[in-house]
Amino acid sequence: MTNTTPLSDRAVSYLRTVVPVFWGSAVAWLLTVVVLPTEVTDLLTSDLAITAVTALVVGAWYIAWRWAEPHIPDWLTRLALGSAQTPTYTGRHNASTAHSPHPTPPT
């Protein structure tokens, strides 16, 4: 049995950002190489179009896997998102619903 220590929240958040960007970029590249007709690929070769399509595919990749995450095994989540662990964000500032930006003076 292997004793593993969980990743820090910061490491998990980095992984779960970088790995989906890698996969989304790879899928966007594959679309231009394998699936799309030459005319469409030629239309999408401008820098702006490449950037926009890559951003859309990365976003779609991340959203799809986050939706699927509760329904798939951890090993597949690790492959797609970089970690099966979700980070917790306990910030330095605690938000309070009782705080009002404009308190009313006592009467």
What's the N-to-C terminus distance? Answer: 66 Å
The description of the largest β-sheet is: none
The oligomerization state is single chain
Mean pLDDT: 75
Percentage of residues assigned to helices? 55-70%
Low-confidence stretches: none
Rg over C-alpha atoms, rounded to the nearest angstrom: 21 Å
Query: What structural class do you assign from the helix and strand content?
Result: mainly alpha
Give the tally of β-strands: 0
Strand content: under 5%
**Which outline best applies?**
elongated
Put simply, the count of helices is: 4
Sequence of secondary-structure elements: HHHH
Q: Can you offer a commentary on this structure?
A:
This protein is mostly helical. Helix content is 59%, strand content 0%. It is built from four helices and no strands. The chain has helices spanning 9-35, 38-43, 47-68, 74-81. Helix 1 packs across helix 3. The termini are far apart.
